[in-house]
Amino acid sequence: MLQPKKTKFRKAHKGRIKGNAKGGTTLTFGSYGLKALTAERITARQIEAARRAITRHMKRAGRVWIRIFPDVPVSKKPTEVRMGKGKGTPEYWAARVKPGRIMFEIDGVTPEVAKTALDLGSSKLPVLTKIITRPGEGI
C-alpha cells in the first residue's frame, strides 16, 4: 500500500477539505480519467482496491496512473480507552481529495473497457465520481 517514506511530523490535525482542487484537474497522461465530484479523505486501502479493480478489468492491458497519494496520517485511539492522555497512534494514511481532482487515468484500452474499468474502480471509493475523456475520444 502507498505511504510516505518519511514525514516531517508523525501526527497531523484533521482539518477540513474546503473549496475545489487547485491542480490535477486535467488529463495529463492517459485518455480516460476518474474525476472526483465531492470532497473526502481516501485511504491507502481504498486507492489500492480501486487500482486492483481497474487493472483486473483491463486484463493488465494498457496503463494505469494513480494521481493521488495518501500523505496524511490518521490517528486512532484504542477501543475502551478513556478521554485524555493525548492523541492516538497513527492508524492509516489518507489522501485529501477535493472536487475536480483527477484520481486515476488509463490509456491503451478501448472506450468500452475504459468505462467499465473506471466504473468498477469508482465503486471502491467514497466519493462521487465522473468519467472524463480527452476531447474527441468519447465513451
Would you write up a description of this structure?
It is a single chain. The chain is α+β, with helices and mostly antiparallel strands and 139 residues long. The chain is built from 2 helices and 7 strands; from the N terminus they run E-E-H-E-E-E-E-H-E.
Proportion of residues in extended strands? 25-35%
Q: What CATH architecture of the domain at 39-133 would you give? A: Alpha-Beta Complex
Largest sheet, in brief, is: 4 strands, antiparallel
Radius of gyration: 17 Å
Strand order of the largest sheet: 3-6-1-7
Low-pLDDT ranges: none
List the helices and strands in order: EEHEEEEHE
Distance between the termini: 31 Å
The CATH class of the domain at 39-133, by name, is: Alpha Beta
Q: What class do helices, strands and sheet pairing give?
A: alpha+beta
Q: How helix-rich are the residues, as a percent range? A: 10-25%
For the residues shown, what is the average pLDDT?
95
Number of helical elements: 2
What is the CATH superfamily classification of the domain at 39-133? Ribosomal protein L16/L10
Count of distinct strands: 7
Tell me the CATH topology of the domain at 39-133.
Answer: Aldehyde Oxidoreductase, domain 3
**Per the principal axes of the C-alpha atoms, what is the gross shape?**
elongated
Describe the structure concisely.
The protein is α+β, with helices and mostly antiparallel strands and 139 residues long.
SSE topology:
Blueprint lengths: L31 E5 L3 E4 H14 L5 E4 L5 E5 L12 E9 L4 E6 L3 H12 L6 E5 L6
